[in-house]
Amino acid sequence: MVKRNKHENEKPPLPTTPLPPPVGELPVQYKRMSASRTDPPAPPSNRLYGFIPVLICVSLLWFAWSQWHNPPQVQQQPVRVEDHHKKRVWWMPDLLKTLPPFAEGYRLENFVPKYKISGCAINGNFPEINAAIFCFLHNSTLFTAANKTISEDLGENGLCSKIKSFTMTDWKLWKKHITDKKVRRVAFVQNPLERFARTFRKICEIERKCLNCQENVGCFMRKLIKEHEKVAEGLAGHVRTYITNYFSPQSWNCHFNRQLRTVETLKIGGNQTELARFSDELNKILGEQGVPKEAQKTIKEEVMKIPLTLSADERRIMEKIKKDEDLLRIFRYLYEHDYIIFGFDI
Ligand SMILES: *[C@@H]1O[C@H](CO)[C@@H](O)[C@H](O)[C@H]1NC(C)=O
Ligand SMILES: *[C@@H]1O[C@H](CO)[C@@H](O)[C@H](O)[C@H]1NC(C)=O
Ligand SMILES: *[C@@H]1O[C@H](CO)[C@@H](O)[C@H](O)[C@H]1NC(C)=O
Asked: What's in the keyword line of the UniProt record (predicted)?
């Protein structure tokens, strides 16, 4: 047995790591890898080079078009669409406080069981027109017997005013016929300033019943605020005075405080165009309740005969309030929510 040399037991020396190539030269292995690529490239085709700028242009154009045509849906913060400082009346600041809407709601009902419909009349919104139309639906024989038409029955005591089941003044009757049953309810609403001007002309200027203010609209509205605030706060109980009833905000009627969503509102007033639109909308509802075409036609003809355009005096009152910042501010304090609830432009 050959004695092994001591040196033979030693591990072979580690291969020496090659020195790093001088800066700027590739290490050997990379040299080898790239060697195959060192062949001179095929001579570029001039046609291909000419095509590149065209391709870039076309893709840029396509990109621009696709962005314009179909912009990417970016998750955005909610955008403030309307100017935060835009005012409801361009020349005066918005109100921070108004009289509350929906005080204990009065209702003056005109119920027609035959068509399961009831018209709620609001003081100041031609309650006599409401009564005459629904009375005609209730029993048109009353009109023929009295030799009258709808437009001729616009007094305080219409032909149906004595019929208890029509006027529904009794809570027991109301409960029996209206609650739990599917009765359609409509109310006529009016532009708040037009309504105020008409009522002020009639009750303050002609009847002179307006809290000793005679024709002074500013004096009257200031006193009216005090009266209305008592009603709004419940301090006056369920009682309204002649004045607080006639000048009540519209939302204080028809039990809007409980049934806003179940009462349909129709805008009445204005010129012949607006009156025609009103009667068309009313007839649409009546048609759905089964009122015959013939009766609808009569109603429209009669409604168009009622003159509702504002008189010169009424327009004077409106203009006075509109032009005076102080008066308009008080007016809006009283009736701003009627504009919002019933959808009128101020
Ligand atoms: C309608 O009025 C006429 C005349 O007053 C009356 O004879 C008739 O009974 C009334 N009809 C109904 C359904 O109330
Ligand atoms: C019905 O009233 C019209 C006018 O309103 C009148 O001309 C006519 O004579 C009256 N008819 C009857 C029967 O009273
Ligand atoms: C009727 O009133 C409306 C709104 O105020 C107005 O746009 C319209 O021009 C008026 N039509 C006529 C015939 O006066």
From this structure: Membrane, Transmembrane, Transmembrane helix
| Ligand 3 pocket by Cβ (under 6 Å) | 270-271, 273-274
Ligand nearest to the CA of 308: 3
In angstroms, the CA 103 to CA 249 distance is: 9
Q: Do residues 148 and 159 make contact, with C-beta atoms less than 8 angstroms apart?
A: yes
What secondary structure does DSSP assign to 188-244, as a single string? Answer: EE--HHHHHHHHIIIIIIIS--STT-TT-HHHHHHHHHHHHHHHHTTTTTT---HHH
More confident residue, 86 or 334: 334
* Contacts (Cβ under 8 Å, ≥6 apart) of 72: none
User: Over pLDDT 70: what percentage of the chain?
Assistant: 80
Beta bridge partners of residue 121, listed in sequence order: 108
Q: Read off the pLDDT band of 44 (50, 70, 90).
A: low
Q: Which of 274, 309, 322 to mutate to test the pocket of ligand 3 (most atoms within 8 A of CB)?
A: 274
Which is nearest to 146 in space by CA: 155, 113, 308?
A: 155
Q: What is the CATH number of domain 109-342?
A: 3.40.50
Of ligand 1's listed atoms, the one at least distance from the Cα of 139 is: 1
CA–CA gap between residue 57 and residue 64 (Å, rounded): 11
Residue 140 has pLDDT above 50, yes or no: yes
Task: Spell out the domain ranges in the chain.
Answer: 109-342
pLDDT of 225-248, one tens digit each?
999 998 888 876 777 889 999 999
Protein residue with its CA nearest to atom 11 in ligand 1: 139
In tens, the pLDDT along 260-308 reads 999 999 999 878 999 999 999 999 999 999 999 999 999 999 999 998 9
Task: Provide the token pair at 340.
Answer: 């919002």
* 141 in contact with ligand 1, CB cutoff 6 A: yes
pTM to 2 decimals? 0.75
- Would the CB of 145 count as within 6 Å of ligand 1? yes
> How crowded is residue 320: how many other Cβ atoms within 10 Å of its Cβ?
14
| Cα-to-centroid distance, 300 and ligand 3 (Å) | 19
**Mean pLDDT over residues 254-263, rounded?**
90
Beta strands in the chain, from DSSP E residues, in sequence order: 108-112, 117-121, 184-189, 263-267
